[in-house]
């Protein structure tokens, strides 16, 4: 069987593979941002606990100022990372949409190929049946 649209099907499969790869890359980027956010949260929580401990008893102004500045820096970094995460989540969703569309296009071509193969097989069976009928009729007339 020769599927005359095989080159198109091959292109669509290749495009789908590229979309799948891009989706995985975008998803990996999102996971890394999530890990970074978790790390920032843990460091921030640890630093807040340290600052709270330092504020009991003899208070060192230098430690409080540096702790306060560092906490402000961590909050800012956390906000920036959260904004990056939102943008990356949009990228992941966009890549997912493109992948779904590519998969649908590939499936359409695969179904067309299957239908054409089925139609070709049915035609072959009809031809075989026709040949067998002709042989049977010839045998009847010879006897």
Task: Pick out its properties.
mainly alpha; 143 residues; 92% helix; 2 helices
Describe this structure in words.
With 143 residues, this protein is mainly alpha-helical. The protein has one domain (6-106). Helix content is 92%, strand content 0%. It has two helices and no strands. The protein has helices at residues 6-54, 61-142. The longest helix is centred in the C-terminal third of the chain and has 82 residues, at 61-142. The two termini are 38 Å apart. The model has no long low-confidence stretch (mean pLDDT 90).
List the total number of helices: 2
Query: What is the typical, i.e. mean, pLDDT?
Result: 90
Low-confidence stretches: none
Q: Considering DSSP H and I runs of 4 or more, what fraction of the residues is helical?
A: over 70%
Counting DSSP E segments of at least 2 residues, the number of strands comes to 0
Structural class: mainly alpha
Sketch the major β-sheet: none
Overall radius of gyration: 33 Å
What is the N-to-C succession of helices and strands?
A: HH
Span of the ends, CA to CA? 38 Å
* Overall number of domains: 1
Strand content: under 5%
The dominant shape is rod-shaped
Give a brief rundown of this model.
By secondary structure, the protein is mostly helical.
Write the layout of secondary structure elements.
Elements lengths: L5 H49 L6 H82 L1
Helix pairs in contact: 1-2
């Amino acid at each position: 069987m020769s599927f005359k649209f095989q080159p198109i099907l091959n292109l669509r499969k290749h495009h789908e593979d590229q979309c799948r790869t891009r989706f995985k890359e975008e998803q990996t980027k999102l996971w890394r941002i999530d890990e970074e956010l978790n790390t920032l949260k843990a460091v921030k929580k640890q630093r807040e606990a340290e600052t709270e401990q330092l504020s009991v008893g003899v208070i060192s102004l230098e430690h409080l100022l540096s702790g306060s500045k560092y906490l402000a820096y961590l909050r800012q970094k956390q906000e920036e990372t959260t904004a990056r995460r939102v943008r990356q989540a949009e990228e992941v969703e966009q890549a997912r949409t493109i992948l779904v569309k590519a998969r649908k296009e590939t499936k359409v071509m695969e179904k067309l190929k299957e239908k054409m193969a089925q139609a070709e097989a049915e035609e072959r069976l009809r031809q075989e049946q026709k040949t067998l009928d002709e042989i049977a009729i010839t045998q009847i007339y010879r006897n």
